[in-house]
Amino acid sequence: MKGGCITPGTIAGLFCPGLLLLASAEIAVYTNHFLVELHRGGEPEAKQLAAEYGFSGVRKLPFIDAGYHFYHNGISRARRRRSLQHKLHLEKDPRIKKAVQQEGFGRKKRGYREINEIDINMNDPLFTKQWYLINTGQADGTPGLDLNVAEAWELGYTGKGVTIGIMDDGIDYLHPDLASNYNAKASYDFSSNDPYPYPRYTDDWFNSHGTRCAGEVSAAANNNICGVGVAYNSKVAGIRMLDQPFMTDIIEASSISHMPQVIDIYSASWGPTDNGKTVDGPRELTLQAMADGVNKVMFLLNKLGKMTVLLTHTGDGAQILFTALYMEDFSEAGFILDLTWRDMQHLTVLTSKRNQLHDEVHQWRRNGVGLEFNHLFGYGVLDAGAMVKMAKDWKTVPERFHCVGGSIQEPEKIPSSGKLVLTLTTDACEGKENFVRYLEHVQAVITVNSTRRGDLNINMTSPMGTKSILLSRRPRDDDSKVGFDKWPFMTTHTWGEDPRGTWVLEVGFVDSMPQRGVLKEWTLMLHGTQSAPYIDQIVRDYQSKLAMSKKEELEEELDEAVERSLKSILSKN
After folding, report:
1. Residue ranges with strand state E in 349-455
2. What is residue 31's three-state secondary structure?
3. 3-class secondary-structure state, position 521
4. How many CB atoms lie within 10 A of CB 515?
5. Residue 524: which residues within 8 A CB-CB, separation 6 or more?
6. How far from chain centre, in Å, is Cα 541?
7. Beta bridge pairs of residue 98
8. Which long-range contacts (CB under 8 A, 24 or more apart) does 47-56 make?
9. What are phi and psi of 52, to 5 degrees?
10. 224 Cβ contact partners less than 8 Å away, ≥ 6 residues apart
């Protein structure tokens, strides 16, 4: 395959902890992958078992003790019925604790959608068109609406010492804009079970998504080829795991947990089908791998002098360019900055800016501590330069605590018109070890059914008055049976707030047609810290600004009153 460059449209999101996945719940499909847990023994015993029962290969699972991935080339990759013969043989073996044939489910690639005065010199021919790096208004874009990566580069942060794992359909590691930054030791092909994650050729070049993601992040700079990666001195590892008929929980989990001692960032620009109809989330093993990564692996990644960050950006009609297998529209951006995942979230909240982002429906608002947010744009445009400068003096955030703020378990009918309004008053576990004083994440765990799930609308308001839209209308979602079962709707719009007080949940229908529904559960989960010194300073600054603005308003009112009085006196004379 010959490498090329592409011109993408808007930018899609990259992976982060806590990703919410949406997919369809279709007829079950069973694959040739098995989860096998042993009572005792190690990899030699597992390999012996696999050979005895005719399995083609076996891999140790890092996120399960005595857990192994068995795969069998003699079984169809996708079938409607379980392979009971293999399952029963495995389950009857006294050496085996558990054997589960993996179900197949869908995962789709993301992203196919439609220089200020900075002394940055690059000889890459398409660099000047990479508006998301430095936006001067090229391609009729908005000047200044970019990631401000140039400032981060000037401060010396270009991704050096960082390895990014691209979990996708493979990487063309022979591409001249990627070859020098390719980390072969950290790469693996989970679709073919070998260490060579090269994309499978198709006439329509469908398997080029991973290569473009890799180039967007790690394309070499100043080599006279295409454009520049956002972190052009970083290393990139290929984790090929999308190119098979169906995704399985074991492949997804294995990919997310592959070589954490080397890989600093895992990029997963994909998810279930975006059909707007159904709801799905990560399966059991993937959730376990995520938790294992957050609770154990993250603490192994702290390398002095290096920072690890992944940023995304939304476009305004202009285009991005980066490494690709061929020419086509594409849409993503990431950039690299040593901090924990929670440090990164705090820095993102504190340094992101409204810039020139605007929406007629969803207005910018301030939460209870003065942080500006928007339902569509979050806390705003990511600012690499500001993030790097703040990170230099950043102290790791304090321990995070989890508190069940309260729960309503009695079924409540949702009126066909108007809203169901429920309240929960919480002390946020005050007086206990898990007291949450400053919020980070808030989850509303909800179980609800209705005659049409797509017409449900759910909002939640914090004690400090911040309203979060948890669920808005989904026009294509006709579900009337499944609903949401203990679904953890999450908001970060209350970041830094004091959670103590009364929370309000509003549930209603947005369609004019008569609807029926029942809310069966609402549990409030609070996640945050017991100390956050910067929040107090933000509150003081915010209150000071409010006081100044009110003073200015009073002064204007006084001036107007004086002017009216003068006019009245003059008119009488």
Report:
1. 365-366, 372-373, 401-408, 412-414, 419-426, 438-450
2. strand
3. strand
4. 19
5. 404, 405, 406, 407, 424, 426, 442, 443, 444, 445, 503
6. 30
7. 37
8. 49/90, 49/93, 49/95, 49/96, 53/86, 53/89, 53/90, 54/86
9. -60, -35
10. 123, 124, 125
CA distance 536 to 282: 36
Element (H, E) at 239: strand 235-240
Give the Cα separation of 484 and 481 in Å (integer): 9
Handedness of CA 193, 198, 200, 204 (dihedral sign): positive
Q: Decide: 79 and 30 in contact? Cβ < 8 Å.
A: yes
202: left (phi over 0), alpha (psi -120 to 50) or beta: beta
Per DSSP, 527 falls in state E
What is the C-alpha separation between 22 and 275, in angstroms, rounded? 9
354 vs 573: CA distance, rounded Å: 52
**Which of these, 490, 477, 374, lies nearest to 440 by C-alpha position?**
490
Q: Could you give the CA distance from residue 371 to residue 377 in angstroms, rounded to a whole number? A: 13
CA distance 173 to 235: 11
Among the residues of 284-428, which ranges form H helices? 284-295, 341-351, 384-392
pLDDT tens series, the chain, 573 aa: 445 664 333 222 332 222 222 223 356 788 989 999 999 889 999 999 999 999 989 999 998 999 999 988 877 766 777 777 888 889 999 999 999 999 998 887 765 333 545 678 899 999 988 888 988 888 788 888 889 999 999 888 999 999 999 999 999 999 999 999 999 999 999 999 999 999 998 887 788 999 999 999 999 999 999 999 999 999 999 999 998 888 999 999 999 999 999 998 888 888 887 788 878 888 999 999 988 887 764 433 733 223 333 333 333 333 333 343 433 333 344 443 467 888 889 999 999 988 888 888 899 999 998 899 999 899 998 899 988 888 888 888 899 999 999 999 999 999 988 899 999 999 999 999 999 999 999 999 999 999 999 999 999 999 999 999 999 999 999 999 999 999 999 999 999 999 999 999 999 999 778 899 999 999 999 999 998 867 777 767 766 766 666 666 666 666 666 556 555 655 655
Instruction: Summarize the chain as % helix, strand, coil (round to 5).
Output: 25, 25, 50
Residue type at 199? P
In the chain, the N- to C-terminal Cα span, in Å, equals 90
Cα(15)–Cα(167) distance, rounded to whole angstroms?
10
- Following DSSP, what letter does each residue of 451-515 receive, concatenated? S-GGGEEEEEE-TTS-EEEEE---TT---SSS-EEEEEEEE-TTTT----EEEEEEEEE-SSS--
pTM of the model: 0.75
**In this structure, are residues 269 and 213 in contact, taking their beta carbons and an 8 Å threshold?**
yes
Cβ neighbors of 117 (< 8 A, separation 6 or more) are: none
Cβ contact 251:262 at 8 Å = no
Identity of residue 109: K
> From CA 107, how far away is CA 271, in angstroms rounded?
5
Residue 428 is which amino acid?
A
